[in-house]
Amino acid sequence: MNYCATKSVVKRKGKETDETLSFTNNNNKMSHQHDLDRSGGKRLPLVSFWDLPNYMKDNEYILRYYRANWPLKEAFFSLFRWHNETLNVWTHLLGFILFLGLTLANLMKPHVVDLLQQFTRSLSSGTEKNVSDTIKDFLGAALLFDLKHQVPLKMEVEALEFVIARWPFFVFLGGSMFCLLSSSICHLFSCHSHDLNLFLLRLDYCGIAVMIITSFFPQIYYVFLCQPHWQLLYLAGITAMGLFTIVTLLSPTLSTGKHRAFRAMLFCSMGLFGIVPAVHACIVNWGNPRRNITLAYECAMAFSYLIGTLFYVTRIPERWKPGWFDLAGHSHQIFHVLVVVGALAHYAATLKLLEWRDNFGCDMV
Ligand SMILES: [Zn+2]
C-alpha cells in the first residue's frame, strides 16, 4: 500500500514543474507545522490547492490560503482573518450594507407614499383640514402637493393619480440585497462541507438571477407606465426567463467549475434581453431630455457587468501568474467589485427615471 502511494506521488510529481514541486514540499512542511498548532488549540490551518477535497478544486490558478472542511463557527470567524475568500466576502458584504443603507434612506425619504397613505390622505383631506395637516406632519414633506390649498375633492383625487408607485424600485433594491448577501454567505461558508458547498453555490447563482430580473422591474415599470400592455409583456417576459434560469441553475451538475462558461452565458442572455425594451424605450422617449443621462448610467451598468463577466470567465489575472493573486487581486474579486459598481449605476439611472415620472406623470416631456 505504501509502495502504491509512493508510486502515485512520484507519478504526480513527475508532471509538475520544479517550481510547483518546491512549493508542494514547503507546503507539506507548513501543513505539518499547522497541525502542531492546531493540536495546541490554535487557529485552523490554511491549505494549498493540492490539499483540497475535490469539490473545492474550482480555480487551479489560486494556489494557497484555502480553508477546507472548516466547522461553521470557524468559517464564520474567518470573516476577520486573511484567506483567499476574505475579499470575496467583504466586497459583497459591504455592497449589501451600502444597498441596505440606500433602501432605508429611500424608505424614510419624503417621497415615499404608499397606497395606504394615499388612501388615508384622500379620505381625510375631503373631511377636515386639521386631519390633513396632521398627516402632512406625519409624512414630513412627503406629499407631492400642498394640502393646505383648499382643493375640491374631485380635483385632488385626480391629482393623486400622479403619485408614482415605489414598489418596483424597492423590488430592485431587495433583489440587489438578496444577491449581495447570498454571495457573501456563499463565500464565507462554502468551505464547510460538500453538501453545504453545493447548496450555497446554487443560492449564489440564484441570487445573481434574482438581481438581474429585479433590475428590470423599475426600468420597465416606469418607462412603460403609460403603455400597460408593453409593461406587462416585458415584465412577464423577464420573469419567465429568470424563473427558467433559476430552475436550470438549481441542477447540481451545472454548479460545478466545468460549467462556468454556460452559467455566464445564461446570465448574459438574461442581461441582453434588456436590449429589446431599452431600444423600445429610446424610441418612445426620443425627445425626452432625460434620455441621455439615463442611457449613460445604463451603459455604465452594462459595461461593468460585461467586463466583470469577462474576468469571471477568463480568470485573469491569476491565470497569468498562478499564486500571485491568491489573497488579493484575483478575477472573482474584480468581478464582485464590478457587480456592485454596475448595481450602483443602475440605481442612479432608476432615480432619474423616478424623478421624471414624479414630475411629469404620463406627459412625455
Ligand atoms: Zn462570488
Automatic annotation (TrEMBL):
Top-level taxonomic group: Eukaryota
Compartments where found: Membrane
Entry membrane topology: Multi-pass membrane protein
Record's GO cellular component terms: membrane
Keyword Transmembrane helix: yes
Pfam families: HlyIII (PF03006)
Listed GO biological process terms: response to hormone; response to sucrose
Residue spans crossing the bilayer: 89-108, 169-190, 202-225, 232-250, 262-283, 295-314, 334-354
UniProt keywords, alphabetically: Membrane, Metal-binding, Transmembrane, Transmembrane helix, Zinc
Keyword Transmembrane helix: yes
Protein name, per record: Heptahelical transmembrane protein 1-like
Species whose genome carries this gene: Pisum sativum
